[in-house]
Amino acid sequence: MATLIPALIVMGVSGCGKSSVGEAIVRYSGGMLIEGDQYHPAENIAKMSAGIPLDDDDRAGWLARLGEVLAAAVAAGEHPVMPCSALKRQYRERLRYAVPGLGFVFLELSREVAGQRVSNRPGHFMPASLIDSQFATLEPPNGEPQTLVLDATLPIDRLGQLTAEWWRHPQPHVRRA
């Protein structure tokens, strides 16, 4: 796969479909999925499971680890797709520092739809009670380089297709409904 973007982060609030869309992107792009949530330390998962939002300090080690994992995959010749909330610009900048040219796919979603989706998601550590904190933390990546903004209510398969197409022929900042 020839691309100017070595790896992708599928970002957004909880419930936007990051993991499902990441899987669809991999199907259409030939990339490899690396689930960002798997790298949360036990303390972060316990905190979120208890309904306590993470702060910048909680996320610092997690983001450093994600950057290492992404950089290693790219160095090995892989094309990783990583679902990761990446809610703040400073988090995205840390990841961009680890992997220059990193692309972001922002799955935009309303608070109401996110709440419904998270409430109906069995077995996940992130409770619906944390949706408001996710939106309070979110700094949309408007105008940021190598960023595709998509409506998260589109069918997952379509989101995967749109992203794979953009990844093959990237443009600096694109918004598609």
From TrEMBL:
Species this protein is from: Pseudomonas matsuisoli
EC number: 2.7.1.12
Matches recorded under Pfam families: AAA_33
Protein name: Gluconokinase
One function term, GO molecular function aspect: gluconokinase activity
Reactions catalysed according to its record: D-gluconate + ATP = 6-phospho-D-gluconate + ADP + H(+)
Keyword Nucleotide-binding set for record: yes
Metabolic or biological pathway: Carbohydrate acid metabolism
Similarity-based family: Belongs to the gluconokinase GntK/GntV family.
InterPro entries in the cross-refs: P-loop_NTPase, Therm_gnt_kin
Annotated SUPFAM superfamilies: P-loop containing nucleoside triphosphate hydrolases
Key words, A-Z: ATP-binding, Gluconate utilization, Kinase, Nucleotide-binding, Transferase
Gene Ontology annotations for the cellular component aspect, listed alphabetically: cytoplasm
Class of enzymatic activity (EC top level): transferase
Any one Gene Ontology BP term: D-gluconate metabolic process
